[in-house]
Write a structure and sequence with these properties.
alpha/beta, 7-stranded mixed sheet
Amino acid sequence: MIYDPRGCIDYDETGNGPTIVFVPGSCSTGAAWRPLIAALGGRFRCVTTSLLGYGGTDERRTAADPTIVHECEMLEAVVRRAGGPRKERVHLVGHSFGGLVALAVAMRGYVKLASLTIAEAPALDVLRACKEPQLYRAFRDMTGCYFARHDRCEAEAIASMVDFYGGAGTFASWPPRVRAYAVETTSVNILDWASAYGLVLTPSTLAAVTAPTLVLWGEHSHPAAQRANELLATHIPDAVLTTVKGAAHFMIATHPAEVASFMTLHVADQMVDA
């Protein structure tokens, strides 16, 4: 745990070797990375955290001020702790909204990274900026339906979002405890979407990313999510785009070995270059 005047931050680490900081998505905690960390076989020092409002990380945002800057400041504190007194550069890996926060940190440039891996971030503003109105509208329609269900006090409103990403029936297929946590943190996830909609992603803002970047997308993910991540890889300098075969959005749970393999190769490439 990191104790910060603005609130506690989840922090855990295991293993030895080059340091990788793992950022989970919405409705989850650092525990979401356990299958992937197991697939790494102890070759890395793995640091995990949770986003604002999840696990032991205190919320800092409000409905009046949901800007992603709050998430960035939290994650930058994690990166600095992981880098230690010598301020060593870490490899930053984020899934879903965690990938968007990791991207925002890389764009800000307040901490220097050894590499960046983005596993299907909800980078919806790049669709707007690059004139993909139908795919941008797909995100807007989904969140509109989701928020309307929440306003009607439907307990499982968040299923609209989960099934958008994973396909019909994904939410129902989750274990009861996982569904329960998603329902419990629905109000936090709605703040996540406000943060995501507020992040400006244009070719010029993405050009500010200097860390070597790998962008992953699922072969069976929603076309809007696929295209958004393709555009990230197009406009982040020298980024590499890779498809996780057979996977959809929740790839770190369904295909941890494949994601670990791509990520390991990316990290190894940077170590050789260094």
